[in-house]
Amino acid sequence: MDHSLPRPAQTSQLRMFLLLGAVVAAWFGLYNLIQPLANWITYSFLHLQAGSHLGDSVAFFLYDVPKILLLLSGMIFLISIIRTFFSPERTRALLGGKREGVGNVLASLLGIVTPFCSCSAVPLFIGFIESGIPLGVTFSFLIAAPTINEVAIVMLFGLFGWKVAGLYIVSGLIIAVIAGMVIGRMHLERYVEDFVWQLQAAGGVEGEKLTWKDRILRAWDSVKEIVGKVWLYVIVGIAIGAAIHGYVPESALVGIMGKQAWWSVPAAVLVGVPLYSNAAGVIPIVSALMEKGASLGTVLAFMMSVVGLSLPETIILRRVLKPQLIAVFIGTVAVAIIITGYLFNLIL
What is the pTM for the complete model shown? Predict the structure, then answer.
């Protein structure tokens, strides 16, 4: 006999799953209607000419806005469900005691599905150090979490297919692992603020037990919260992408961001590092740049530098890292991204 849930709770949970199934079916139905609806509005309702600058830009905008918002909502929901199984305490327990190399790989993999933002960077960093996790392993986690962005993964998959999305994941993992190992080998613990080392390691706290109804409700709350914060970035990014798609000459972008311009990769990273945005705002621009002939390695280097070296998160980390370690962190990741960009341009 199942004593895990009383019968009213089981009934409520069943209703939740049925409602979720209906929402998923509606999601797929809407997703398949986006392209024909965007074309109908652009060319039949607004009577814009197919192939014109304005017509192409409007069609691009009307297609990409709902498409990316739907992809964004679906991915946030799925990742939020996964994240309910990874509390900070459990993450620290999984990473604790791991040797260099193995610890860096595991930390990088955990970084993909573990939340990372300006509000969580400092307590996560302190918690990892308190738990005895090596500094290099900690940095592999901190690099992977924003760089291998789940929003970027699903949007790259939707726009370019699984090969590009897979290359993005693999290159991000390699950057996180190697950069973390390099920082670890440099023995830079003296550049962590003193108060971090003075903190007593807190005992592990068992995460709360959640039902599937709790997990679904939390995931829905995450969708509302995150989409509510980034929808404007999505629209602005797509508007820029639409303008590039419709009006910017292909030859101009190829000259600046093509494979022949050897300086394009470091230039893209230098532009991306101080630029504050997120994957939702950057991916539409990446899509438009690539459609105009920009090289994949260059635009991915730009995107990785924007989402992986966020200026606000770096400022927050200054609370626990001295300027020397901040500089090593930014420099190591930037060099790794530049090398990755050149490799992508070389092999693709």
Answer: 0.60
